[in-house]
Design brief:
65% of the residues lie in helices and 0% in strands. It is mainly alpha-helical and 379 residues long. It has one domain: Up-down Bundle (A middle domain of Talin 1), CATH 1.20.1420.
Length: 379
């Protein structure tokens, strides 16, 4: 009995020490940590760093990688004594991959890309005076056809359009498979491809140089910029220019007002990739807006301006444009010659104009950013 009583006393003591089930000692609710609100400068710092690390530098890295692949593909193709159609297709695919990488990066156009005419050396377009055709002819007539000869000529002889003219030309007297001067044409392809690789490599290297890289000024609002806001304003200025170029030069000028339009004015009409260019442009613009998977304008608008509606509207425009682009099943240079396809181009052009208008009104008014943009500045 004593043991049983002692056991009961010990149990009671333990229950008392542990709270014993008393309502007065119930668990306290968890403490919610305070929300850390970013300052505008802190948010801009995150935004610029994310833009550089998640969109710009990866885009230029891909551009350089694809330029390197095209350079290698051109050497391999020209090493064949009698290349076949399938081997030419491999060269064409390498050009298309490089072109896509370039179109994806076109929302940047800052720093090293705009210096020393690198932008035009990669792509001289629109070409209203047949500069590309004349430049390629000059290169083919040169005593020595190499990268130095390419670099010494005007921009029309350099870059993606010149390569497109040489690689995709199907005329009997101009094809890489059948032209009487196909060896010279192959030398020209290798020379231009090497020059493109050099330019793409320069752009990336000058952006990411450890000590003097443009990325430092981009992230910090230093160098040619006075503030981080000035960097953002320069950045979004390029978005406005690209959207305007897409609407006017890439679509309206090609569509014209009557059938058959002006298919020869399409950006990459020889390779039939003009519409794909536009799709990739908008893919790049969306990634620039979102900073890839990093801290983009979608988060910036919420943190600094406590606004979700503007962001939702912008993203909805991107989605609608994507649907309209994918609804056009033919290459652009063919679509403008067919009424049913032209009917699909009109709402696309309207929607792109609506996006540009919305960015220049609601987005600009909300953020207080002032892009230095003149309508139809060109590419």
């Amino acid at each position: 009995m004593k043991l049983k009583a002692l056991s009961l006393l010990v149990t009671a003591a333990l229950l008392s020490a542990c709270g014993g089930g008393s309502d007065n000692n119930s668990e306290k609710p968890p403490i919610t940590p305070p929300v850390v609100k970013l300052t505008k400068d802190e948010a801009m710092t995150k935004l610029l760093a994310a833009q550089a690390d998640n969109y710009i530098l990866p885009a230029y890295q891909t551009l350089m990688d694809e330029a390197d692949k095209l350079d290698a593909a051109s050497i391999m193709f020209c090493a064949y004594q009698a290349p076949s159609e399938s081997e030419l297709i491999e060269l064409k695919n390498a050009w298309l991959a490089l072109s896509k990488a370039w179109q994806f990066a076109k929302a940047v156009k800052m720093g090293p890309e705009s210096e020393e005419f690198r932008h035009y050396r990669l792509q001289f377009w629109p070409d209203n005076n047949n500069a590309v055709q004349r430049g390629v002819a000059s290169l083919l007539a040169a005593q020595v056809i190499d990268e130095n000869a390419v670099a010494s000529l005007q921009d029309g002889a350099q870059g993606l359009p010149a390569l497109e003219l040489l690689i995709f030309n199907q005329a009997q007297d101009a094809s890489l498979l059948s032209a009487s001067n196909k060896q010279d044409r192959c030398l020209a392809v290798m020379a231009i491809a090497a020059n493109v690789k050099t330019v793409a490599t320069e752009i990336l290297a000058l952006w990411q140089h450890e000590k003097i890289g443009f990325v430092l000024d981009f992230k910090n609002g230093s160098g040619e910029y006075n503030t981080k806001q000035a960097v953002l304003e320069d950045f979004i200025t390029n978005w406005f220019e690209l959207i305007e170029v897409i609407k006017d030069n890439k679509l309206n000028n090609v569509k014209g007002t009557l059938i058959p339009g002006y298919p020869e004015k399409a950006e990459s009409y020889i390779s039939l990739s003009s519409l794909e260019n536009i799709k990739t442009n908008f893919s790049g613009l969306k990634q620039a807006y979102l900073a890839g998977n990093g801290y983009g304008f979608d988060e910036y608008l919420v943190d600094i301006h406590e606004n979700t509606q503007v962001n939702d509207t912008i993203l909805n425009y991107f989605d609608e444009i994507d649907v309209l682009l994918n609804d056009i099943e033919k290459p652009l240079s063919q679509a403008v010659t067919i009424q049913d396809s032209r009917n699909k181009l009109s709402p696309l052009i309207t929607k792109i104009d609506e996006l540009r208008t919305y960015l220049s009104t609601d987005f600009i008014q909300l953020t207080g950013l002032n892009p230095n943009f003149n309508s139809n500045d060109g590419d």
